[in-house]
Amino acid sequence: MANKSQEQSPTPLLPVDEEVVTGPYKKAAGGFGAIVSSMKHLSREMGVWSGTKAVLNANQDGGCDCPGCAWPEPPKRSSFEFCENGAKAIAAEGTRGRVEPSFFKQWSVPKLLKQSDHWLEAQGRLTHPMIRRKGSDHYEPINWDQAFDTIAKHLQALDHADQATFYTSGRTSNEAAFLYQLFTRQFGTNNLPDCSNLCHESSGKGLGETIGVGKGTVGLHDFEKAEAIFIIGQNPGTNHPRMLTHLQEAARRGCKIVSINPLKERALERFTHPQEFWALASSGTPISTQFLQVRVNGDVALLKGIMKAVVALDQAAGGNIIDRDFIKTHTNGFETFQEALNAITWDEIVQNCGVARPEIEAAAKIYADSKATIICWAMGLTQHKNAVANIQEVVNLLLLKGNFGRPGAGACPVRGHSNVQGDRTMGIMHHPKDAFLDKLAKAFNFEPPRKHGLDVVDSIQAMHDGRVKVFFGLGGNFYSATPDTRYTGQALQNCTLTVQVSTKLNRSHLVTGQEALILPCLGRTERDTQNGQLQFVTVENSMSVVHRSQGRRDPASPHLLSEPDIICRLATATLGQKTQVPWQTLSQNYDAIRDLIAAIIPGFDNYNQRVRDPAGFLLPNCARDRRFDTSTGKALFTVHPIPKHHLEPGQYMMMTIRSHDQYNTTIYGLEDRYRGIKKGRRVVLMNASDMASANLKEGDRVDLTSHFNQETRRAPNFVVLPYDLPAGSVATYFPEANPLIPVRSVAERSNTPTSKSVIVSMTRS
Ligand SMILES: Nc1nc2c(c(=O)[nH]1)N[C@H]1C(S)=C(S)[C@@H](COP(=O)(O)OP(=O)(O)OC[C@H]3O[C@@H](n4cnc5c(=O)[nH]c(N)nc54)[C@H](O)[C@@H]3O)O[C@H]1N2
Ligand SMILES: Nc1nc2c(c(=O)[nH]1)N[C@H]1C(S)=C(S)[C@@H](COP(=O)(O)OP(=O)(O)OC[C@H]3O[C@@H](n4cnc5c(=O)[nH]c(N)nc54)[C@H](O)[C@@H]3O)O[C@H]1N2
Ligand SMILES: [Mo]
User: Under a CB-based contact definition with an 8 Å cutoff, are residues 523 and 169 in contact?
Assistant: First the structure.
């Protein structure tokens, strides 16, 4: 079935004429290299002076929230509170390049499809609303009123509101997110898929079921008190560089840092803070005390091993290590958990995680000796079939020593997009709670839909089957970010209308429904003026702090609208008399939106006043206070089987990861600096002994085939590179490898695509 769909697909993959070069990276991460790289991107895109000014504005009080990642700003901000990641994101948004109507006249959609993602991104900012009419190969300009009328007509023509789906990517502000979910529900559906479904959904589910809140339980101050920090399946050097400052400070004061990853990520070995100029010549601070090279998706086994060793240390120490008082007062399920743990053998553990017992015991000793431990994780845990189990094993480990509600301790899912957490808080979710819907119903005098909606994977299938006919994307790049690229392409092409609210050109503008609209919007770094008044928006970071964000740059084009304005105008055009929400007033004064949020969402009282405090405000989180909002009022120990992976000879477990020169599907360049890979992204990283058994040499080209149930999917022409990875595990980059990820291969209970465990085999190209 999958093979058939590939042949029919009119959507080509990326061009593949890349010369890959590799070499080991021996310097510390960060340091001078990060400064040079930031300046290169800033001056190329924006010019030196504008670039520097824009970057200095990021993450400052009264400035904009850095669009790079969701890592929090410290209360005492350095005048230089930015990082390479942020500098690149700001440069990409602030670019002098413009994609104007003349560009679309020159470039047809089929011609654009032949260009790489890197090329599309490099063309610059979108400036005008554009429409691709039915049967046409070209986009042409359209005015805003006609654009909204077109969307309204398509939506009103549906038999049922559930035939439309409304995606959100995580850069959307709280204000836009609140309005968007309200519009969607007034229109009549809970079809609100969002990038969380591809990202930390498993964390939300895993934490919600066990500690009663789907968010992390630590603040930045906890990093100053932790005695041990575990970093599992996360590459902060590339994806959350500002986190490294906190890890460096922790390492310097003697905090033990354990990293668990199939790859020895450079920044977790040594790091030089880019702002410590004196350290330019130094070799950086060693970060990790211990590195456990787990096999891809070997974490359940490894975490069980650590817990088994902690239990043994506890017995040897006369019961001094496990926090029995905490367990008795605050948890359920400990006995069952302990019995299950006892029944597992060390052989089973070692075989399934690929880490030797003494190394596991050494990590357990660090955990046992620490009075306050933080466990951080990201996509290395959340994108597997057993991802929810991964998170719940982390919770089990934390519960053993009462590492909740204690300074320096807790769970720290490190979020991706800068407001992905806030969007959820605002009600962007396909499975809303009734209590929330009741409040919307009362405040806005309408009957919200109660049926749960579609998430990302279910939306793809519904578009593919023809059950959903209109796709609306508030930011993001749905076509490239989602699994099973060809299948998703067909799903989008089945729609009568696809709409993308975007800042820059991407592949989702090219693989479209019969009619397609591009609605260009203001970016984070730009001034948002409504009715003559300068507005600001608000966001929530990874540690539940809500704060302001205000852009200062001139908008890239006078034709751009803000996201809140786009939603208000969409709602007015679509809902007509069917709404009592004062959309127009809201679009002109964001304080009025915040007053509505304050009335509906818990924790936002006096929103407008409190958010004007430069430090913002912290949302309540009961688990941080040892109150667990589960059905029993206690935190839960849970039991999960060790996942078994059956690999045939010649098959490998593939993870898809980010390089240093990309932001998700936005490709800034072709260099993965810390991994020493240059000039190309179509690579497959492989253990040297696996290469020898498969008779492959560095530089050989292979086609990859993925295997799921009886289905196979192929992606051609990847360059083989030897890399220090466990045998049996291989790595490729996202999004090049997404055609290999089966749409039905998802995490149990969170429905997140298994982007980090894809079974593949190889043949020579
Ligand atoms: N510069 C930059 N910054 C970003 C992003 C970006 O693309 N570029 N994306 C943003 C977003 S949306 C997100 S969600 C975050 C993502 O941040 P990360 O989660 O750090 O990103 P990934 O590259 O997906 O890397 C996951 C890490 O998990 C490891 N890993 C893979 N499989 C396993 C496994 O089975 N077990 C373990 N223990 N480890 C494994 C990989 O080797 C890699 O180090 O970053 C955010 N920040
Ligand atoms: N194989 C594989 N697939 C993955 C992952 C993986 O690790 N492996 N990771 C997944 C994860 S964690 C995530 S979060 C998703 C990301 O999925 P998305 O969030 O959908 O993708 P992005 O690449 O972040 O979206 C980039 C586009 O957003 C638009 N944009 C940028 N800034 C703004 C703005 O301020 N407003 C608006 N309206 N638009 C803006 C630009 O047009 C840009 O082209 O991908 C997922 N896909
Ligand atoms: Mo993400």
Answer: no
| 5-26+647-764, CATH topology level | Barwin-like endoglucanases (2.40.40)
Structure tokens at 194: 């969002």
- Type and span of the H or E element at 251: helix 241-252
Instruction: Please determine, for residue 270, whether its predicted confidence score (pLDDT) is greater than 90.
Output: no
Kindly write down the DSSP assignment for every residue of 528-542, as one continuous string.
-EETTEE--EEEE-T
Q: Among 1.10.340.30, 3.75.10.10, 3.30.450.20, 3.40.50.740, name the CATH number for the domain at 98-199+420-605.
A: 3.40.50.740
Q: How much is the pLDDT for 43?
A: 74
**pLDDT per position as a tens digit, 132-151:** 999 999 999 999 999 999 99
Mutate to test the pocket of ligand 1, among 294, 376, 377, 655 (most ligand atoms within 8 A of CB): 655
Contact residues of ligand 2, CB 6 A cut-off:
169, 171, 195, 198-199, 379, 383, 416-417, 474-478, 481, 501-504, 506, 521, 523-524, 563, 656, 664-666, 734, 737-738, 741, 755
Tell me which residues have their CB closer than 6 angstroms to ligand 1. 69, 85, 199, 232-235, 238-240, 260-263, 265, 294, 296-297, 299, 378-380, 416-417, 655, 657-658, 662-664, 756
CATH 2.40.40.20 in the chain: give the residue spans: 5-26+647-764
Mean pLDDT confidence for 592-614: 97
The answer to whether the predicted template modeling score (pTM) of the entire model surpasses 0.85 is yes
Nearest residue by C-alpha to atom 27 in ligand 2: 476
Residue ranges of the chain assigned to CATH 3.40.228.10: 201-413
Q: Which ligand is nearest to the CA of 473?
A: 2
Query: Nearest residue CA, atom 19 of ligand 1?
Result: 379
Rounded-to-integer distance, Cα 219 and Cα 615, Å = 13
The per-residue pLDDT for 670 is 87
Phi (first) and psi of residue 471, to 5 degrees: -115, 130
SS (HEC) of 205-217: HHHHHHHCCCCCC
Residue that has been written with the tokens 């008779």 in this structure: 695
Domain with CATH 3.40.50.740 in the chain: 98-199+420-605
201-413: in CATH 1.20.1730.10: no
Confidence (pLDDT) at 482: 98
Return the pLDDT at 21: 60
